[in-house]
């Protein structure tokens, strides 16, 4: 459908968590620039909050990809329930060579933390730690993350290693800001807060066209009636907008339309359970 009918080179709209820099919406692009400076170019801690579906996980994926391209180390976990011990084991499995889940389960949290910090201080280099759904972290987990980030301030264990940089990105719901600010470990003083907003109406049409152009599109695919309806129904929520736009292309394909109108969006709406208005 995408290639033969719509003459695109690929699916145009990002799946949740999928990073394609050229297809990011305007709020994501603006925040990505700030996070590059805060987390990739220096030690830093950032918390990105927003409604579900605004693209926080996609943004984290873009940062992780860029850090790997720079030769850095990335440890990423997505969870709804994580105590400090589980969090540490997940990071150790990703950052310590030869550490399987079986091996890490036999080591005490204190020993795992020592091994992880020792490796950082021996090897140097850049580390990016990520936690999605971070509003579920407890005080012990936040205290652990603070200790790992502060590893960068300790003396290196070898002569002339690469400079150690440890950065942390937390993403989650709005309550994450309060949790971080109120934790007694002083963790909140390290954190730079950001908010990822939903799209505005005047950003919706340009975003759709940008995503389609990035996928090789050479025409106007959505008329103004379609863009208006997509914005009204999605309320600027990027995940829902992408889903509706994708299904609208499918409806246009089935109906053999040259472009998408409100009628095709209406057909797409029959396939999607919309969230209730607050």
TrEMBL record:
UniProt GO MF annotations: ATP hydrolysis activity
One Pfam short name: AAA_22
Domain (AAA+ ATPase): residue spans on this chain: 42-198
InterPro entries: AAA+_ATPase, AAA_22, ExeA_AAA_ATPase_DNA-bind, P-loop_NTPase
SMART domains per UniProt: AAA
PANTHER family reported for this sequence: GENERAL SECRETION PATHWAY PROTEIN A-RELATED (PTHR35894), PHOSPHORIBULOKINASE _ URIDINE KINASE FAMILY (PTHR35894:SF1)
The protein's name in its UniProt record: AAA ATPase
Biological source species: Rubinisphaera brasiliensis (strain ATCC 49424 / DSM 5305 / JCM 21570 / IAM 15109 / NBRC 103401 / IFAM 1448)
Lineage: Bacteria, Pseudomonadati, Planctomycetota, Planctomycetia, Planctomycetales
């Amino acid at each position: 459908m995408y290639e033969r009918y719509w003459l695109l080179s690929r699916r145009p709209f990002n799946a949740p968590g999928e990073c394609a820099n050229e297809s990011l919406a305007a709020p994501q692009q603006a925040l990505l620039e700030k996070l590059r400076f805060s987390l990739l170019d220096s030690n830093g801690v950032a918390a990105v909050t927003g409604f579900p579906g605004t693209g926080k996980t996609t943004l984290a994926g873009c940062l992780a990809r860029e850090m790997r391209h720079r030769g850095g180390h990335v440890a990423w976990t997505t969870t709804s329930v994580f105590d400090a011990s589980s969090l540490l084991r997940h990071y150790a499995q990703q950052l310590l060579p030869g550490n399987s889940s079986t091996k890490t389960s036999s080591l005490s949290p204190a020993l795992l933390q020592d091994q992880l910090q020792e490796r950082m201080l021996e090897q140097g280099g850049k580390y990016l730690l990520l936690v999605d759904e971070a509003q579920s972290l407890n005080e012990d987990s936040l205290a652990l993350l603070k200790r790992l980030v502060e590893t960068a301030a300790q003396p290196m264990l070898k002569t002339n290693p690469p400079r150690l940089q440890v950065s942390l990105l937390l993403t989650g719901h709005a309550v994450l800001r309060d949790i971080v600010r109120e934790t007694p470990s002083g963790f909140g003083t390290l954190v730079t807060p950001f908010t990822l907003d939903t799209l505005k109406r005047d950003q919706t049409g340009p975003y759709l066209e940008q995503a389609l152009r990035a996928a090789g599109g050479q025409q106007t695919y959505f008329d103004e009636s379609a863009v208006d309806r997509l914005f009204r129904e999605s309320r600027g929520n990027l995940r829902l907008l992408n889903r509706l736009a994708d299904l609208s292309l499918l409806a246009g394909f089935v109906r053999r339309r040259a472009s998408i109108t409100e009628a095709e969006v209406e057909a797409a709406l029959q396939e999607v359970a919309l969230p209730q208005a607050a």
